[in-house]
Amino acid sequence: MSVYVNGITDNTINYISNGNTGSYRFDNNFTVYYAGEKSTFSQQKSSIKAGTDITLYGESYGNWSFALISEDDDIAPKIASHDYSLSDTNLEGTTIVSSGLTVYRDGKAASIDDIQLNDVVYYNTRTNVMDVYSDKVTGIYYDAQPSKAYVESVTVGGKSYEIGYDAAANALNATPGSFEIGDRVTLLLGKDDKAVFAVELSDTAIGSYGVVLSVGEQIAETGANEGSSELYADIFMTDGESHRIIVDREYDSSIGSLVRIDYNGSKATLVKQSKPSSGYGELDKVNRTLNGKSIMKNAAIIQRTYYEEEKTAECELLDLDTMTAKSISSAQLLGVVTGNSFGDISILFVEDVETTASFGVVSSTIKAGDGTVSGYNIYSNSSIVTYDQGITIAGLSVGMPVMYKNTSSGLSDLTRLYEIDSGDISAVDATRVMIGDSVYNVSPNVQVVDVSNTGSYITLSIDELENYDYSKATLYSDTSAVSASIIRVITVR
Predict the structure, then answer these.
(1) Which end of the chain is more exposed for a tag (fewer CB within 10 A), N or C?
(2) Residues in Cβ contact with 141 at an 8 Å cutoff, skipping those fewer than 6 apart
(3) Please, are residues 130 and 121 in contact by the beta-carbon 8 Å criterion?
(4) Mapping DSSP to helix (H, G, I), strand (E, B) and coil, where does residue 463 land?
């Protein structure tokens, strides 16, 4: 039996085999073979993780005698040559067995029609599982280590990536026809974020845009410019990370803006994108549309969380499936990039759409030398954080739920939450809570706190509420409009 490991707990693996899920518990001394060597399960347990392929052998089904643990590179990756559909029966030369087929794309359950052009696909025909990866990095080929002749890792787009497959090594080493230092290149990333292919893509809309976080000047420590001064921009890209890009001039006025990254030789030119004058409106998560326009499955939603003109900015990625916003206004929509000839949205650049704040309950006050209140200790996520700005928030006292922001300089923007309702909870699940006949939506990271003892708050899970012994529950939100409120904090006594 060949299986694809979904997870491992203690000595038990959870697996998928030909579309069916199951589990199997190994004894510590169970015989396994790994990397051509005979061993035991306990000795090779660290080699098993989600995505590992294992083949079990025995005289009868279920009565297994030994197992073969596949190494990560046993299955060769392939580049998807087109956008796939359910009617496709062949994956780049390998027949697709549709019966019992399991597909994961970037770790999430998917199907054949989720595979897109230039995705990296590992197809295990033994377990009938496809692992699909969509991450790509486009930038200047800046450096090769330990050398270009024996390349083991490369620096592209301001970050270093290990080589995970011979095809990438051959495209980036010193053989004739390979990419040269200073060339523009796109790395296709596979398992463990390793580069498995290096290609030149002419149309990489989603990977050629980002938001400028900061700019500066540095002395190059490696690469073609080693020892020379060079200008850079730190850019928040669609992979959710900041990349340092070497640029052709100063871009102070582009900080906080969405830019297209064009390359001229070994340096990048940043083209600021204009704020759209239309396109805002209703956000439909079910149909994946904004104002009726389709949002692509692999679209990046970038939210600017902090901005100081010509100095610095901060951003985060939002997940459309977990967003609570029902619309995006003109003020909130900062930029849009379309990714195909239909005008479907590949990048949304927004501000103040989803709260980036944290939530908690005031556990105690902080006193200044003269005895006046100068700050607050806040109980949040089972720990205490401190807001000490030397000021008092009007009407704020111990036991009250609050909203605050974590920035690089400490806590800021401390405000009270609005009380929405209180009473006995008659029904609750992961997304809703009911008091009386009123149903309220609950945020994915809702804080549930027992405040009966101010000296020792207790954090509860949302599931514990239904059977928890309390006299009253109170619901709080960051908006006073009951019809639009998302419950951020629930206190019980």
Answers:
(1) C
(2) 154, 155, 156, 172, 179, 180, 181, 182, 183, 184, 185
(3) yes
(4) helix
- For 413-453, the pLDDT digits (tens) are 888 999 999 999 989 988 889 998 999 988 878 999 999 98
- Would you call the peptide bond into 77 cis, given omega within 30 degrees of 0 as the criterion? no
Structure tokens at 265: 């030789």
> What pLDDT digit, counting tens, does each position of 382-412 carry?
889 888 877 788 889 999 999 987 765 667 7
Q: Alpha-carbon distance 453 to 446, whole Å?
A: 20
Q: How far is the C-alpha of 180 from the C-alpha of 159, rounded, in Å?
A: 17
How many whole angstroms separate alpha carbon 286 and alpha carbon 338? 20
Token pair for 293: 């326009």
| Residue 191, token pair as written in the block | 């398992």
Collect all residues with Cβ–Cβ distance below 8 Å to 90 and sequence separation of at least 6.
96
Domains in the chain: boundaries: 2-73, 75-133, 136-199, 211-350, 358-413, 419-492
Residue 345's Cβ-side half-sphere holds a number of Cα atoms within 13 Å equal to 23
Q: Which residues pair with 195 in a beta bridge?
A: 163, 189
Residues 6+ apart with CB under 8 A from 438: 421
Q: What angle do CA 194, 200, 204 make, to 5 degrees?
A: 85
Q: Please, are residues 136 and 207 in contact by the beta-carbon 8 Å criterion?
A: yes
Question: What is d(CA 68, CA 356) in angstroms, rounded to the nearest whole number?
Answer: 46
- The C-alpha atoms of residue 170 and residue 178 are separated, in whole angstroms, by 7
Q: Residues in the chain, how many?
A: 493
**Residue type for position 333:** L
Query: 398 vs 372, 378, 391, CA distance in Å?
Result: 15, 9, 15
End-to-end alpha carbon distance in the chain: 53
Q: Which amino acid is at 420?
A: I
pTM: 0.60
What's the CA gap between 335 and 316, in Å, rounded?
Answer: 15
Query: In CATH, what number does 136-199 get?
Result: 2.40.50
How many C-beta atoms lie closer than 10 Å to residue 183's C-beta? 16
